UniProtKB/TrEMBL annotation:
Residues that span the membrane, as ranges: 84-105, 159-182
Site positions (Role in the control of polyamine-mediated channel gating and in the blocking by intracellular magnesium): D173
Compartments reported by the entry: Membrane
Keyword terms: Ion channel, Ion transport, Membrane, Potassium, Potassium transport, Transmembrane, Transmembrane helix, Transport, Voltage-gated channel
Keyword flag tRNA processing: no
Pfam families (alphabetical): IRK, IRK_C
Any one annotated GO CC term: monoatomic ion channel complex
Protein's name according to its UniProt entry: G protein-activated inward rectifier potassium channel 1
């Protein structure tokens, strides 16, 4: 068992199971047993491989109102299904509200009963009920203008409502369409074609012990002003006794030499030299396998085709 552990490392543990697969059985004489390597349960990551942060904010209390103070950013950060729901709901409510306002004007003036009178001039021609009032609003809001329903000059309240409708419609269009446009133009999906190596390695390079991983761009369009940074996340305790659960340390990947400025026309190897200034300098090979830490790689740049 110890030989198997030395061969496969600490990422696996050896268990004994019966050949029938009926579960764990104690080893005994006369039993046909086999040894299987079962991977240990993976620890939960602070940042997933896809870039999603596994952080949930709790105990905010009254601080949740701050999200409403920045409503536009809150809507952009929502998931697509909620964005589409709010988009459809807002337009539906606004349309029904404005159509109701036109119907109320026609009802209070008595246009619904006198619309078919030959010498009577209504506020809105050819509006007899709520569906016709709704159609009139849609025709004016969408600037269709069939010409069958129109406002007359005998209705000042209708002219005021039409001005209010134009202003309100412009505000709703600018807010919702702008929100959808910003969400669609976010460069998050661009990260799908930026590939990182699955594993990082430590080996000698140029006579120095170096932590290395690779990054590449699958698209022909370049990443302008691409820059890479690395953060080491680990818990530590200060000399004063304070415990820091997620202390962030910067890993030097060429900041002093300019090697952190990337030209991603081909896959590049990112290097961090483990010297006296490195957080890994005091770690041995055994302690590095058991130490609780996480390395987060941040790649920033401008998408050439969109400028995002």
């Amino acid at each position: 068992m110890s030989a198997l552990r030395r061969k496969f490392g600490d990422d696996y543990q050896v268990v004994t199971t019966s050949s029938s697969g009926s579960g764990l059985q104690p080893q005994g004489p006369g039993q046909d047993l086999q040894q299987q390597l079962v991977p240990k349960k993976k620890r939960q990551r602070f940042v997933d491989k896809n870039g999603r942060c596994n952080v949930q904010h709790g105990n905010l209390g009254s601080e949740t109102s701050r999200y409403l103070s920045d409503l536009f950013t809150t809507l952009v950060d929502l998931k697509w299904r909620w964005n589409l729901f709010i988009f459809i709901l807002t337009y539906t409510v606004a349309w029904l509200f404005m159509a109701s306002m036109w119907w109320v004007i026609a009802y209070t003036r008595g246009d619904l009963n006198k619309a078919h009178v030959g010498n009577y001039t209504p506020c809105v021609a050819n509006v007899y009920n709520f569906p016709s009032a709704f159609l009139f609003f849609i025709e004016t809001e969408a600037t269709i203008g069939y010409g069958y329903r129109y406002i007359t000059d005998k209705c000042p309240e209708g002219i005021i409502l039409f001005l209010f409708q134009s202003i309100l419609g412009s505000i709703v269009d600018a807010f919702l369409i702008g929100c959808m446009f910003i969400k669609m133009s976010q460069p998050k999906k661009r990260a799908e074609t930026l590939m990182f190596s699955e594993h990082a390695v430590i080996s000698m390079r140029d006579g120095k012990l170096t932590l290395m991983f690779r990054v590449g761009n699958l698209r022909n369009s370049h990443m302008v002003s691409a820059q890479i940074r690395c953060k080491l996340l680990k818990s530590r305790q200060t000399p004063e006794g304070e415990f820091l659960p997620l202390d962030q340390l910067e890993l030097d990947v060429g900041f002093s030499t300019g090697a952190d400025q990337l030209f991603l026309v081909s896959p590049l190897t990112i290097c961090h030299v483990i010297d006296a200034k490195s957080p890994f300098y005091d770690l041995s090979q055994r302690s590095m396998q058991t130490e609780q830490f996480e390395i987060v790689v941040i790649l920033e740049g401008i998408v050439e085709t969109t400028g995002e």
